[in-house]
Amino acid sequence: MSKKIIELVNVTKRYNGVTAVKNINLYIRENEFVTLLGPSGCGKTTTLRMIGGFEDPDEGDIYFDGVRINDVPPYKRNINTVFQRYALFTHMNVYENIAFGLRIKKLPKDEIDRRIKRMLKLVDLEGFENRHVDSLSGGQQQRVAIARALVNEPKVLLLDEPLGALDLKLRKEMQIELMDMQKNVGITFIYVTHDQEEALTMSDTVVVMNNGEIQQVGTPVDIYNEPVNRFVADFIGESNIIEGVMIEDYLVEFSGRKFKCLDKGFGHNEPVDVVIRPEDIDITDPDKGLIQGVVTSVVFKGVHYEMLVEGGGFEYMIQSTDMAPVGANVGLTFNPEDIHVMKRGS
Ligand code: ADP
Ligand code: MG
Question: Which family does the similarity line name (predicted)?
Fold first, then answer.
């Protein structure tokens, strides 16, 4: 495991009585691609701005490579930022935009040239040196902004919803490109998005936030398969969240039946919330199902059908390539490993 490069310890930030970030603790490792994910207003940008040095925490400490940096100004932090509104110099060409910071630092001309050539290659804009930035597409402009940040060779790059202004197709392409760039340059990326799919696609580690607090930190697979609470289960992907009771280790009751599961460590007969993902439920004949129900709605979604099935005191959402029409009696099946149990009301 590589070492911690950024660490936040008990960090709180308030704006006129509103707590934007509430006592968060987080560390980020060297070369990691970490994403802060959560709904609008949950404190992602504030967290990023404190790491960048554009906001001071009211409480707590921020460390860079083990050194406390609360009082270090942004330009001395070895951290660069790419904002959603990529503030490029529209009267300059691509080359000069990327060169700007290096000229201020008075780097030798050939060094500047060498670095810019490398950056243009990295962001796939070779041959665009003399183009004015306002003649470029949104995606190309954002690549210039990324090149301009990376050319300073920061240890950490902060990206605040950098693809937010792009249309879906371009955003998906840029997601892949950004991941490749991050692996190629070997720089820590701290990325902010409210788009859960984007977070799951790109990140080594996802930090789920809500109301200024960290809800869960984990790999995309962990966050998806083992959400720690209702908020995470609901926010990441679609879920059926059913009230149940944990009978004993590996045995949970819901929808009027007991089911084997892989969860343990709850109290005897403890009330729990059970999560089952729609794509983990299959429909079958009523007599072969674990739960019997009636289809109340069917929507064709392209890759699958999305159906609602009323049964066992709950309305289950199911995503399946098999379809049963509205009104059909069906059975629902799922596997023990597809049941995830959480503390009730967490
Ligand atoms: P996010 O980036 O997740 O959408 P922000 O970090 O921008 O969230 O905001 C978190 C909370 O702090 C919100 O309630 C927001 O209104 C508030 N906030 C952010 N910046 C300021 C500011 N400069 N002045 C007052 N309130 C702010
Ligand atoms: Mg924001």
Answer: Belongs to the ABC transporter superfamily. Spermidine/putrescine importer (TC 3.A.1.11.1) family.
288 phi and psi, to 5 degrees?
-100, -5
Give the dihedral sign, CA 217/218/224/227: negative
**Residue percentage of the chain with pLDDT more than 70:** 99
Whether residue 346 is predicted with pLDDT greater than 90 in this model: the reply is no
Residue with CA at minimum distance from ligand 1 atom 20: 46
Phi/psi region, residue 285 (left: phi>0; alpha: psi -120 to 50; beta: rest), is beta
**Predicted ipTM of the assembly:** 0.98
Return residues with CB closer than 5 A to ligand 2 (ion).
45
Which residues constitute the domain of residue 276? 237-341
Into how many domains does the chain fold? 2
Do 169 and 274 lie in one domain? The reply is no
- Place 181 in a pLDDT band, splitting at 50, 70 and 90: confident
Residue type, 267: G
Ligand 1 atom with minimal separation from the 13 CA: 12
| Mutation test residue for ligand 1: of 12, 13, 18, 195, the one with most atoms within 8 Å of CB | 18
Q: How many CB atoms lie within 10 A of CB 108?
A: 9
